[in-house]
């Protein structure tokens, strides 16, 4: 088991993300994960820095902690050739062994900005499949070309490659994507404690790490913790089918207008009691996940790092640093 920290890039500036990654390393976390979004979920979040620049800065400022995208859509806004190059460069900057490339089928919120139509989920899975072929092809070295149903690659070469390519973790919100992760990925990435996802991943041949994001909200009192969870993460109450399809921040503001603070309580470990946080982590461990990225929706990141170091770290099974 490894315990990581989710860098909430929509809620904080790029400089603060780098600082929090340094704090996470000092607090004893094994890895950090950062979302790769163009827009924040909610207008009130106020930030959405470029993930690859932030990762490069973190790689330069840390020595031990693992790094991962959580997750990148490698088509539409990007071409997989660019993702292959970005991931290879990030891996080299992170000593060639600390970086994991998390990929998924994306959200319209972030991908529509380049003016291309938003495909159906079936088509997006097909595009993700072709993207993975292209990325792995380029990581083999040399000039490469690819002709798929959706994507093309013409005479491309990534010149700077790590000795060993990064692991690829494929995000899944359902059985079809989990099966794709088992077939073509090196790891699984999810956000729900759903045993069906890990089961489908393994049934399709997946035997690598299983990443998941664990929603927590630390504060000195429960009321403050729930209020902050509602302010920062009420978008999560809409579910992935909605999150993937809404095109704009204004749509998420409208869709979450009737989400209450009490609605957050069932999903989050919240407040000052470590037992409640441990129970939230155990739900994901019991569902078969072994790389758990703690998401802090509380108002005080430094307070959470202190809470983790003093109250949680020794109670969670996190024996080895990532990589």
UniProtKB/TrEMBL annotation:
It is an enzyme of class 1 (oxidoreductase). It comes from Streptomonospora wellingtoniae. Residues 12-291 form the Luciferase-like domain. It comes from the Bacteria. This is TIGR03557 family F420-dependent LLM class oxidoreductase. It holds the Pfam family Bac_luciferase. Its EC number is 1.-.-.-. Keywords: Oxidoreductase. GO terms for molecular function: oxidoreductase activity.
């Amino acid at each position: 088991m490894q315990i990581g920290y989710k860098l909430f890039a929509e809620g904080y500036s790029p400089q603060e993300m780098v600082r929090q990654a340094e704090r996470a390393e000092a607090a004893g976390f094994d890895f950090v994960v950062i979302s790769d979004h163009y827009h924040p979920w909610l207008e009130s979040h106020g930030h959405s820095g470029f993930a690859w620049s932030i990762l490069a800065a973190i790689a330069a400022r840390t020595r031990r902690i693992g790094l991962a995208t959580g997750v990148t859509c490698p088509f539409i806004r990007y071409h997989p050739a660019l993702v292959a190059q970005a991931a290879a460069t990030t891996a080299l900057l992170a000593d060639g062994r600390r970086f994991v490339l998390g990929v998924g089928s994306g959200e319209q919120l972030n991908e529509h900005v380049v003016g291309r139509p938003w495909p159906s989920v079936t088509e997006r899975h097909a595009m993700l499949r072709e993207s993975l072929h292209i990325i792995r092809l380029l990581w083999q070295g040399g000039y490469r070309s690819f002709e798929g149903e959706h994507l093309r690659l013409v005479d491309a070469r990534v010149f700077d490659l790590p000795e060993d390519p990064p692991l690829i973790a494929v995000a899944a919100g359902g059985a079809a994507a989990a099966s794709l992760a088992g077939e073509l990925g090196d790891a699984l990435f999810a956000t729900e404690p759903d045993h069906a996802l890990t089961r489908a991943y393994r049934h399709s041949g997946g035997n690598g790490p299983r990443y998941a994001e664990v929603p927590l909200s630390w504060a000195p009192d429960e009321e403050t913790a729930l209020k902050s969870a509602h302010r920062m993460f009420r978008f999560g109450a809409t579910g992935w089918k909605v999150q993937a399809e809404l095109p704009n921040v204004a749509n998420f503001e409208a869709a979450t207008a009737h989400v209450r603070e009490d609605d957050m309580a069932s999903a989050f470990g919240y407040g000052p009691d470590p037992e409640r946080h441990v129970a939230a982590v155990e739900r994901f461990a019991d569902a078969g996940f072994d790389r758990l990225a703690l998401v802090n929706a509380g108002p005080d990141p430094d307070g959470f790092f202190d809470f983790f170091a003093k109250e949680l770290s020794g109670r969670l099974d996190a024996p080895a640093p990532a990589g």
